[in-house]
Amino acid sequence: MAIQIVMDHTGDTRHQFDAEDIKAVAAAERRFNELMFAGFTAASRTASGDTTVTRTFDPTAEETLFYPRLVGG
Length: 73
Prior knowledge:
5-stranded mixed beta sheet; single chain; 1 helix; 73 residues; 22% helix; 5 strands; alpha+beta
């Protein structure tokens, strides 16, 4: 089961999807694109446990974290 974790001002929201389910993958890709368009940054965890910034949807990623653009002052 893959998961997309969206961080925002309310905390985090977790969206699990089955990478074998075509409809679930399409919904996850749509969510990915919407969040990227809204200015979120996406990071995926690699097999070794490191994280890497990603700009394209990867249905095989087990965990993708989205965090909003940080605004400094």
